[in-house]
């Protein structure tokens, strides 16, 4: 079952103020987002908050078990005690929720958090893909992001094309890559007739502590980190309460134990209601035929 619980009221963990006062998201900003499919704010975290989160992220990175992949350290907000849950405090910050209301309405659910880390000179190519229905990914770089350093690449305006077909697997190497990303519900896509992925692409450059948010239908990808610096990023994923809630099993980064993920109501009139369970959204058990081009409309985890 996809369980829904009220978000804990975490405060006083992050240095105050955690969010830069220059961070604003207006109706005009949102209109541009609707046109392009993404928005980048160069000012989100304050310098003290950025440093604090970097230190906490490094503790997780260096203490994780080997079973947890560096680029897929998942559900951090569910592994921290309330008194030290800096992820939940940031994920429920009023400025962040005010932006998300433009996208998702009043009743908002946090369904995932992730540390995505690409060490110097390493990191996988994350292929072109789209995200799940009506979700939003908030991408917060903890280091300067450049195209050479494993930064995000997006195809502006392509969210208007709707769902794109999955790329067909034709070689053993492609099969191995498809099987790796299948574990994270990520499926490579291909361009519609008359178009080509990678043309007129925007390779995003962001300072550390910035914020990026993109439409779930916007094709995006990232390359390996070819720089000499780390590329650490915190990802927060939200959806409206009206969408099906997914369950699933998470591997704890600290000890390798497993637990069932939960969904947290972070905004809305019932944000502090008693816990309840909803039917789980369909989980993709993607066969080679699906990886080869058949679409399933379940939630997919973005890069």
Distance between the termini: 25 Å
Tell me, what's the shape? globular
The SSE string, one letter per element, is EHEHEHHEEEEHEEEEEEEEH
Low-confidence segments, given as residue ranges, are 272-303
Proportion of strand residues = 15-25%
Count of helical stretches: 6
Helix content: 10-25%
The major sheet is characterized as:
9 strands, mixed
Q: How many individual β-strands? A: 15
Question: Nearest-angstrom radius of gyration?
Answer: 18 Å
Mean pLDDT: 87
Structural class: alpha+beta
Q: Can you characterise this structure?
A:
The chain has 303 residues and is of the alpha+beta class. It has 6 helices and 15 strands. Strands 1, 2, 3, 4, 6, 9, 11, 14 and 15 form a 9-stranded mixed β-sheet that branches. The chain has a 4-stranded antiparallel β-sheet with strand order 5-10-7-8, with no helix packed on it. Strands 12-13 form a two-stranded antiparallel ribbon. It starts with a strand and ends in a 12-residue tail after the last helix.
Structure characteristics:
303 residues; alpha+beta; nine-stranded mixed beta sheet; four-stranded antiparallel beta sheet; 6 helices; 15 strands; 22% strand; disordered C terminus
